[in-house]
Structure formats: structure tokens, C-alpha cells
Design brief:
With 94 residues, the chain is α+β, with helices and mostly antiparallel strands. It contains two helices and six strands. Helices cover 22% and strands 50% of the residues. A hairpin with a 2-residue loop joins strand 4 and strand 5.
């Protein structure tokens, strides 16, 4: 399954701080439909993500009934991204 969407980068200041983009509700419905077949535990969904010319593998995190995409430091640096920037993402799942 391929999913494309735009969203702002936000910062989570928890015990392990990280940057994320939230998957929109409509695309979360698609992910929820296949989650049982692709999750490896705790509801995490493995995916290949692309922003601009940078592609990496990660896992989508379940959050508040939806999913969020963690954005690695190396990706933010390579694409010159900061908190609040809106980015276009492509997810390849399954």
C-alpha cells in the first residue's frame, strides 16, 4: 500500500524527544484496515518513508487512535527541515 500526504513536523518533548508528522484521519483508516496483517507488536507498522530525495525505513507509531511518522535527525538535516515545516510524505507499507 502506498500513501501520500502533507503534514507539519511537530516535536514531542517526552523522555525520548523526537520529531513526527501525523498521518491524516482518512489515511489512518487505510492503515488500520491492514494493521493486523503488517504490525509486529504494540501496533507499530513498518514502512518505507520518502520526503524529498530522502528515503528511509521506520515504523509508524500508534497515537490517539491514529498514526504518526517519526522523522529522523539525518532526514531533517538532509532536507533542511525544522519543527513547523509542512512536508510531503510517501509511505510504502506492507
Amino acid at each position: 500500500m502506498n500513501i501520500t500526504f502533507d503534514g507539519p513536523i511537530w516535536y514531542w518533548r517526552g523522555p525520548a524527544p523526537w520529531y513526527f508528522v501525523t498521518v491524516p484521519p482518512r489515511q489512518c483508516q487505510d492503515l488500520t484496515a491492514i494493521a493486523g496483517a503488517v504490525t509486529y507488536g504494540w501496533g507499530m507498522i513498518p514502512a518505507t518513508v520518502r520526503i524529498g530525495g530522502t528515503t528511509w525505513t521506520t515504523s509508524l507509531f500508534p497515537k490517539d487512535g491514529g498514526y504518526v511518522v517519526p522523522i529522523k535527525t539525518s532526514v531533517r538535516k538532509a532536507q533542511r527541515l525544522a519543527e513547523g515545516d509542512t512536508v510531503s510524505l510517501r509511505l510504502d507499507v506492507g
